[in-house]
Design brief:
globular, alpha/beta, Rossmann fold, seven-stranded mixed β-sheet, 10 strands, 10 helices
Length: 279
């Protein structure tokens, strides 16, 4: 069983992944973060249970040196691809060797689970994997962009879906830290597979859920296996007030519109209503 961590950062997910697989392949472009991983996981690297690949994932080149942009204050949001001019002063450019995602997988074995978290490059990695008929049993990707969401949702092999909220991760999984499985810190990917506590959903239901909460700081999980399906529970993804609002809007749109109207009247009567400026 092989797990791939595409965008390993400083290794915050690796302790957990290593407790779940015979082999973990961590891919990270930033050599400074790779040194942190080498220091913390020296024995696992020596035994071969952990494989560290210091490269920039690219769908266009293999074995060539490419520019990688390291954020000087927040290395976790470093990226392949030139940042916007307004943000460019926050980055320094380094040279990295490039490798295709499919090449790394062909070198290291069939994936059981692939986690993808690459700033503005997730879609391209997904496309490259699917183009090479690499469809892991379990996969997760951060869904800030609709293109990424659609690409995973529309892949017919995937029939079960779930989501992990970055904002609610530490609240929902308070038993971590664990010496064996590590710590789910604020910027961890969190659990996968059957260890996700929110209900697994069918394709129509996950679409309904995201229609209400919107895309954002969520890892969308997909499985080729039929997982135990449940009902949508918005409390796993947002705060209680938003969760209740989303539930009413989804299940009782007429009631939602009525309550929205009542709230508008209340704001008008109390003088707190502020109309949106028209342009």
């Amino acid at each position: 069983m092989v797990i791939y961590d595409f965008g390993a950062n400083h290794g915050q997910n690796l302790r957990y992944f290593l407790s779940k697989a015979e082999k973990v392949v961590a891919v990270e472009a930033n050599p400074v973060l790779c040194d942190i991983i080498k220091g913390e996981f020296a024995s696992e690297l020596e035994s071969g249970k952990l494989v560290l690949v210091n490269c920039c994932l690219s769908v266009d080149t293999e074995g060539e040196m490419v520019d990688f942009y390291v954020h000087t204050k927040k290395p976790g949001i470093s990226q392949f691809g030139k940042p916007d001019e307004a943000e460019l002063h926050n980055f320094k450019v380094i040279q990295c060797i490039s490798k295709r995602p499919s090449s790394i997988i062909k070198e290291n074995g069939t994936p059981y689970y692939v986690k993808i978290d690459l700033e503005f490059y997730d879609r391209f990695v997904l496309q490259e994997l699917f183009a090479n008929n690499i469809v892991p049993e379990l996969i997760s990707v951060e869904v800030h962009e609709k293109d990424v969401y659609d690409l995973l949702l529309n892949r017919p092999e995937y029939i079960s879906f779930n989501a992990v909220s970055g904002e609610k991760l530490t609240e929902l999984y308070p038993e971590f830290p664990s010496k064996k499985m590590g710590t789910f810190t604020l910027h961890c990917a969190g659990p996968f597979g059957s260890e996700i506590r929110s209900p697994w959903l069918t394709r129509p239901n996950v679409n309904k859920m995201f229609k209400e909460i919107g895309l954002g700081w969520y890892d969308l999980h997909a499985s080729t296996k039929k997982m135990p399906y449940g009902e949508i529970d918005f409390n796993y993804y947002t705060n209680p007030e938003r969760a209740l609002r989303a539930k009413i809007r989804m299940n009782s749109p007429l009631l939602f519109r009525f309550l929205k109207g009542v709230n508008w009247v209340r704001l008008k009567l109390t003088g707190k209503y502020k109309p949106t400026a028209k342009h």
